[in-house]
């Protein structure tokens, strides 16, 4: 039975001898590289990925996270009510792009409802809502029906204009920029999909690129901007809890870029 993680962040530590300690030797401390993370899963779940970089790391992570329990598309409704629960109101979910807290009971397709947003647009690779990438909770989030329609299947990039209930998100003719508080979340969801779906299990080989005109091709952009967002918006407590809930209660796989943000640069 999976256990809740105990996460520790290590930062570089420097020691200086004070005048009061003249003549005393202070043992040197060796710290992990800045930004590195350790988790309770490093010696078990991520054991095969330890010490790897580049394509070898990506391949190892793919082998690890592809072992998941798959949900039906209808089951996603109830799962999102748990994974995206408002920490301040257990009756509500937080909508991804708008940041609005909305009643869990208002899920559906009408105006004022929230529905299931595919962060990796389901037309990018034409996987639709079939069990697999179309029902993967690691990139499915609650969003207002109208806002979801505005995002449509656009690639992600900086710039654009605001809109009603945007929460700070912007859009233009060919791209979408999420609000600042979830920019990193969006980046890590896209990169998770690129590692999870490598064309080895009947689904397209999903990859990030630097385009905003990907259409139905199995690509999502813009990678350079997504990497910036990942750096600017580190994993939040909400995002980490979500990763744990998906692992413990639903799919039993994890988004490695939430646990180990430094792996983004190691791969891309």
Task: Describe the protein in words.
The structure is a single chain. The longest helix has 14 residues, at 183-196. The chain has 268 residues and is an alpha+beta fold. The chain has eight helices and twelve strands. It has one domain (54-267). 29% of the residues lie in helices and 13% in strands.
Rough shape? globular
Structural class: alpha+beta
Q: What distance lies between the first and last C-alpha atoms, to the nearest angstrom?
A: 33 Å
Low-confidence stretches: 1-34
Strands of the widest sheet, in order across it, are: 3-4-5
- How many strands appear in the DSSP assignment? 12
Portion in beta strands = 5-15%
| Number of alpha- plus pi-helical segments | 8
The biggest sheet, with number of strands, parallel, antiparallel or mixed sense and barrel status, is: 3 strands, antiparallel
Protein name: Endonuclease
InterPro entries: Endonuclease-I (IPR007346), His-Me_finger_sf (IPR044925)
Keywords: Endonuclease, Hydrolase, Nuclease, Signal
Signal peptide: 1-36
């Amino acid at each position: 039975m999976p256990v809740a993680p105990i996460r520790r962040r290590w930062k570089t530590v420097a020691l200086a001898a004070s005048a009061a300690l003249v003549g005393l030797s202070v043992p040197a401390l060796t710290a992990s590289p800045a930004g590195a993370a350790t988790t309770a899963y490093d010696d078990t779940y991520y054991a095969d990925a330890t010490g790897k970089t580049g394509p070898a790391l990506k391949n190892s992570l793919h082998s690890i996270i592809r072992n998941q329990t798959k949900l039906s598309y209808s089951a996603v409704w109830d799962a999102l009510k748990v994974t995206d629960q408002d920490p301040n109101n257990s009756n509500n979910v937080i909508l991804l792009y708008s940041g609005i807290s909305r009643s869990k009971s208002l899920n559906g397709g009408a105006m004022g409802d929230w529905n299931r947003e595919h962060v990796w647009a389901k037309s990018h690779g034409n996987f639709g809502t079939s069990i697999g990438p179309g029902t993967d909770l690691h990139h499915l989030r609650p969003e207002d029906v109208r806002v979801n329609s505005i995002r449509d299947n656009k690639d992600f990039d900086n710039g654009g204009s605001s809109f009603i209930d945007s929460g700070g998100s912007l859009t233009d003719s060919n791209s979408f920029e999420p609000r600042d508080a979830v920019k990193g979340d969006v980046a890590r969801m896209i990169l998770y999909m690129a590692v999870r779906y490598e064309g080895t299990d009947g689904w397209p080989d999903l990859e990030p690129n630097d385009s905003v005109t990907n259409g139905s091709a199995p690509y999502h952009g813009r990678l350079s901007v997504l990497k910036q967002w990942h750096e600017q918006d580190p994993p939040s407590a909400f995002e980490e809890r979500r990763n744990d809930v998906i692992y413990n209660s639903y799919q039993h796989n994890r988004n490695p870029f939430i646990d180990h943000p430094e792996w983004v640069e190691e791969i891309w």
